[in-house]
């Protein structure tokens, strides 16, 4: 049963349903129709990437990135353990070893100062994950990667329209990946995009996305027939997904403004509890403009988190914890390894609670959530 204040509520903000009907009337439901092309052009212009290719998920975009990076068995890829499984799976599927490094205690992003110690002769790439739409220290990461001749593949699943020093996340490394899952700011139910910032990778990316064929070149009149020329898979979204997404992208700035207002309301109402040392609030670096993707609080420890989550459930509030660190998961133990010490990853993950935040959440709902957290704190 859905809580009265759910963790997420998928939203319609514009002409999404009209555009889905239009896609049907156009007679093309398969991928790479006019709505797909419109979405890709919007992403290229808004983010500043050389090429955007829509995919059926962010997972697919990451898998494409791993293929484009020529990841092979025995290679190593540096990433945080505090992330979704797709970040590691994309490279593990190619036979690589995910090498997990610790996170920062403030932003919960990959600790840029742990990267260099994790680099070996087998390291091929670094995958920064912009947690909660807040930028990693990309200047440091890019400098280290350039010095060691490593690719930077940004997992920007949560970070559409967020920036680092004025530049869009996902457009800073050689490759980036976005998500349009229903829990993200801009949604298509499922869906994602591969952002290609190295022009030398564009042609092959199109082939990989089209099941390893040069079909895109055929439709542009570059070849007289298309055939199987490389490895690949079926990574295209349907035109129905793209039609819904186009309705969202048209309203992206309004969506972000709505979420930011809610994010600021949470921060302002919970600041007294933070000042009293009861909870900690998100930290936003001055180098970052975030997209208000997520609002979370951190309590003292796992015991307090369990208590507060139970209280929220009792109060019909859809608060949730987030990632179980990958290095401690069964597959993480089997396929990956942790470099250095786990000082913050596990301890920070055990303290974190994500609060309801979605387009259209009301001020009254935010007041209720904050009031219940205050009530809980008074009992401890």
The secondary-structure element order is HHEHEHEHEHEEEEEHHHHEEHHEHEH
The helicity comes to 25-40%
Portion in beta strands? 5-15%
Taking strands numbered 1, 2, ... along the chain, how are they ordered across the largest sheet? 1-9-8-5-4-2-3-12
Mean pLDDT: 96
CATH-level-4 superfamily name of the largest domain: Type I PLP-dependent aspartate aminotransferase-like (Major domain)
Q: Spans with pLDDT under 50 lasting ≥5 residues?
A: none
Distance between the termini: 29 Å
Count of domain modules: 2
Output the structural class: alpha/beta
Sheet with most strands:
8 strands, mixed
Number of strands: 13
CATH architecture of the largest domain: 3-Layer(aba) Sandwich
Overall geometry comes to globular
Per CATH, what is the topology of the largest domain? Aspartate Aminotransferase, domain 2
- Helix segment count? 14
Question: What does this entry look like structurally?
Answer:
The protein is α/β, with parallel strands linked by helices and 380 residues long. It has 2 domains: 16-249, 3-Layer(aba) Sandwich (Aspartate Aminotransferase, domain 2), CATH 3.40.640.10; 252-378, Alpha-Beta Complex (Aspartate Aminotransferase, domain 1). The protein is 38% helix and 13% strand. It has 14 helices and 13 strands. It has helices at 16-26, 34-47, 58-68, 85-92, 115-118, 138-147, 202-209, 215-219, 239-249, 252-275, 302-314, 330-335, 345-349, 363-378, and strands at residues 51-55, 76-80, 97-101, 123-126, 151-155, 163-164, 167-168, 175-179, 192-196, 288-289, 296-298, 337-338, 352-354. Helix 3 (58-68) packs across helix 7. The radius of gyration is 21 Å and the shape is globular. The model has no long low-confidence stretch (mean pLDDT 96).
